[in-house]
Amino acid sequence: KLERMNDDRARRNERIFRQNANLAKVYEYVDGNRKEFRRKIWGPIVTEIVTDSQEAAAFVEQHVPRRVLLSFVVECDEDYNLLFREVREKRKMAINISKVPGGRLDAVRPFCDQDKMNMLKNDHGVVGTLEETFAVPDPVLQVLRTESSVHQVLVGTERTQTSIDRR
């Protein structure tokens, strides 16, 4: 299963980089110069996201803006400055960089209390929040929460839509 996931991820990354040659160049620069950075550089975010279904991947791609999906995440000012200088200033390529100091994930208030979420799931077919449909490292999750509120977006099923239509 792990091998299949790695193959799927490699194919997805290949497709993403084929569609955006500059993004591939930035990724290659980061990958080839990891020793120059103080901390791990994450991204582009879309390459860090692991979902267990095509449907979940589609939800993420529909909700999260493209500029966020194609951005890189750094954990300190020095890495931000180095990446910006090397990519934007020297190579003249566009890049979106988000900084998550120390890679720390901030605590968030739940969308609703557990009783209400259980009611939404049981009575209306809600699956959960968008954040619950994928896995990413904490620094990437922090950016997705800040930029796209993935912890507050509900994901439903056909049963959810039927429940909405009845009102």
Would you mind describing this structure in some detail?
- The structure is a single chain.
- The chain is mainly alpha-helical.
- A two-stranded antiparallel ribbon has the order 1-5.
- Keywords: Coiled coil.
- This is Structural maintenance of chromosomes protein 5.
- It comes from Pseudictyota dubia.
Give the topology, please.
Layout: H1 2-19, H2 21-32, H3 45-48, E1 50-51, H4 54-63, H5 66-69, E2 72-74, H6 77-90, E3 97-99, H7 114-124, E4 128-129, E5 134-135, H8 138-148, E6 154-155, H9 158-166
Parallel strand pairs: 2-3
Antiparallel strand pairs: 1-5, 4-6
Helix pairs in contact: 1-2
Oligomer: single chain
End-to-end span in angstroms?
A: 42 Å
Low-confidence stretches: none
Could you state the order of secondary-structure elements as H and E? HHHEHHEHEHEEHEH
Protein name: Structural maintenance of chromosomes protein 5
Keywords: Coiled coil
GO molecular function, one term: single-stranded DNA binding
List keywords for this structure.
167 residues; mainly alpha; two-stranded antiparallel ribbon; 6 strands; 8% strand; single-stranded DNA binding; coiled coil; Structural maintenance of chromosomes protein 5
Quick overview:
By secondary structure, the protein is mostly helical. The chain contains 9 helices and 6 strands.
